[in-house]
Automatic annotation (TrEMBL):
Cofactor: L-ascorbate
Stored PANTHER family: FE2OG DIOXYGENASE DOMAIN-CONTAINING PROTEIN, PROLYL 4-HYDROXYLASE ALPHA SUBUNIT
Name the UniProt record assigns to this protein: CRE-PHY-4 protein
Keyword Metal-binding in annotation: yes
Organism (species): Caenorhabditis remanei (Caenorhabditis vulgaris)
Annotated Gene Ontology cellular component terms: procollagen-proline 4-dioxygenase complex
Residue ranges occupied by any Fe2OG dioxygenase domain in the UniProt entry: 68-175
Length: 198
C-alpha cells in the first residue's frame, strides 16, 4: 500500500525511550551482493529532517511501533542500479541473535525520496504488483503472516534504473514491541489498510 507522508509532529515520541532505540552514533556505508546501489545505515538522532519524517510516519502508521525498527537504510541507485528479488524477513537460522532479541522484520516502510527518470519501480512479482511511486510516497507492507510465519508472497525487487537516480529510505520494523499496537494475530482485519492509516 502507498501513502503520501503528511507533515505532522509528535514531540513526545522523539523524547520517548522507545524512540531512542533506533538512535545511535554511527553511519556505516553498506555493500550487498544482491543489489547495485550506494547504501548507508542512517541514525536520525542528529538528522532533524529524518527525525521529523520518522515522527510523521509514526503518526500516520499508528498500528506499527516504528521504534522497533533498525536504523534507516538509505539506498541510492544510479543508472543500471537495482535491488534483485529478495525478501525482507530474516532467516532465523542465520540471524539468530537479532531475531531472538527483536523478532523478525514484521513490516517494511519504504519512503521514496527521489524517483528515477526511467525505470526503478518496485515490483512484487508473486502478486503481480508494480509500484511506480512519486517522490514523497511511502510504501508499507507486512513481511509476515498473522501466524508470525514469513509471507512468501512478499518477494520484491527494485527494477533497474534506466535513467536518473532513485533514492529510497527504508525502515525494517521488528515484531517485538508490537504487541500493544498491532491487532491480534487471529483477527481477519490484520491486513486492512484502515488499521494502519486511519
Ligand atoms: O527500492 C526499492 O524499490 C526496494 C527497496 C527494498 O526492497 C528494501 O529496502 O528492502
Ligand atoms: Fe526489500
Amino acid at each position: 500500500m502507498t501513502q503520501n507522508s503528511t507533515p505532522k509532529s509528535n514531540g513526545a515520541l522523539l523524547k520517548s525511550p522507545l524512540f531512542q532505540r533506533i538512535s545511535g552514533k554511527t553511519e556505516t556505508p553498506e555493500k550487498s551482493e544482491i543489489r547495485a546501489a550506494n547504501g548507508t545505515w542512517l541514525i536520525h538522532e542528529n538528522r532533524p529532517n529524518f527525525a521529523k519524517m520518522f515522527r510523521n510516519l509514526q503518526t500516520d502508521i499508528a498500528a506499527l511501533d516504528l521504534s522497533t525498527a533498525e536504523p534507516w537504510q538509505i539506498l541510492s541507485y544510479n543508472s543500471d542500479g537495482y535491488y534483485a528479488h529478495h525478501y525482507d524477513f530474516l532467516n532465523p537460522d542465520t540471524n539468530k541473535q537479532l531475531v531472538e532479541a527483536r523478532g523478525n522484520r514484521i513490516a517494511t516502510v519504504l519512503v521514496i525520496l527521489q524517483i528515477a527518470k526511467k525505470g526503478g519501480t518496485t515490483v512484487f512479482p508473486k502478486i503481480n504488483l508494480n509500484i511506480r511511486p512519486k517522490a514523497g510516497d511511502v510504501v508499507v507492507w507486512l513481511n509476515t503472516l498473522p501466524s508470525g510465519e514469513s509471507d512468501s508472497q512478499t518477494l520484491h525487487a527494485a527494477c533497474p534504473i534506466k535513467e536518473g537516480t532513485k533514492i529510497g529510505a527504508t525502515l525494517w520494523v521488528h515484531a517485538k514491541g508490537q504487541e500493544f499496537s498491532m491487532p491480534c494475530a487471529e483477527s481477519k482485519k490484520y491486513y486492512d489498510r484502515r488499521l494502519f492509516f486511519e
